[in-house]
Amino acid sequence: MKRKTRVIQISGIRGIIIALFTLVCLAAGFIGFPGLVAMYLWNYAASFTLSVPAINIFQGILLWAIAGISFMIINNKHKYFVAFQTPDKLSDEEIKKIMERVKLQAQARMLNSMMYISKDNEKLPEQNQDTKSDETLNNIIEEEKDIHKI
C-alpha cells in the first residue's frame, strides 16, 4: 500500500514566498531577537563600567551564539568532548638512564666550555695542558654514542 504523504508542498511563486517567509521568521526568532536581547543586556551592563565597550547587533548575535554553544556543551549527555589522560609513568630504570644522560651531557658541556676557553688562551704552552681531560672527553663521547644506539 503506497501512501502519498507530503509534508511540505511548495508550488509556484506563492510556495517559495511562504517558504522564505517561514525561514526568515525562524532566523529572526531564534537568531536575531536573542542576539538583539544579548546586545541590549551587554550594553546595559557596559554602561556601568567604562572599560567595557558597547557592541552592535552582529556582535550581539555572536554573543548569543557563544552562549548557546556553551549551553549545549555543558548540557551534553557525554559531558566532555575532550578527555585528558595522564602520560604513563617512567620506570625507575628509565629515570636512571635519563639522569645518566643528563650528567654526561653536563660534563660534556663543561669540558667543551673548558676547551673553548683554552682555545681562546693559546698563549699557554702545550706541555701545561691536561691530557687527562681529552681522554675523559673521548670516553664521554663514546658513552653518548652507546646511549644513542639504545
Structure, described:
By secondary structure, this protein is mainly alpha-helical. The chain folds into two domains: 12-74, no CATH class; 92-149. It has four helices and no strands. It has helices spanning 12-46, 57-74, 92-120, 131-149. Helix 3 (92-120) packs antiparallel against helix 4. The longest helix has 35 residues, at 12-46. The N and C termini lie far apart (74 Å). The mean pLDDT is 79.
Q: Layout of SSEs?
A:
Layout: H1 12-46, H2 57-74, H3 92-120, H4 131-149
Helix pairs in contact: 1-2, 3-4
Share of β-strand residues: under 5%
What would the principal axes of the Cα set say about the shape?
elongated
Uncertain stretches: none
Distance between the termini: 74 Å
Helical segment count: 4
- The sequence of SSEs as H and E is HHHH
Mean pLDDT: 79
Total number of beta strands: 0
Please describe the biggest sheet, giving its number of strands, its sense, and whether it closes into a barrel: none
Percent helix among the residues? Answer: 55-70%
The count of domains is 2
Structural class computed from helices and strand pairing:
mainly alpha
CA radius of gyration: 37 Å
Which key features would you list for this structure?
mainly alpha, elongated, 4 helices, 2 domains, 150 residues
